[in-house]
Amino acid sequence: MNQFSKFLSAAFLAMTLLTAVGCASTSKQEGTGEYVDDTVITSKVKAAILGESTLKSAEINVETYKGIVQLSGFVSSQASASKAVELARAVKGVSSVKNDMRIK
To answer: Is the pTM here over 0.70, yes or no?
Structure first.
């Protein structure tokens, strides 16, 4: 019985370690916590852009990966693109902003 208890403890420890390693991030893949953080950042950036009446938020796409925000889509002027980048940079958790927006 004692040997079975040790085996069960070792199996539980192995499963715990595998679960923790499975949630860790790599250079090409986000961990679970980072994915949740990026989703929150994306939502906050979208809300900031939506709150700006001079921007057509439906035409601006926002994606976030490891704190780096990428803005793409179409805007009416360079001033609108600059305003969107400024709003994105002001969001807590944003490390940098890539501007891939096009002027139409």
So the answer is: no
Choices 3.40.50.720, 3.90.1170.20, 3.30.1340.30, 3.30.830.10: CATH for 32-104: 3.30.1340.30
The amino acid that residue 60 corresponds to is I
Predicted confidence (pLDDT) per residue in 74-87, tens digit:
999 999 999 999 99
The residues pairing with 71 across neighbouring beta strands, listed in sequence order, are 62, 99
Residues whose CB falls within 8 Å of the CB of residue 44, separated by 6 or more in sequence, listed in order: 91, 92, 93
Tokens representing residue 1 in the block: 């019985």
Q: What's the first-to-final CA gap in the chain, in angstroms?
A: 74
The string of pLDDT tens digits covering residues 6-55 is 766 666 666 766 566 555 555 555 565 666 689 999 999 999 999 998 88
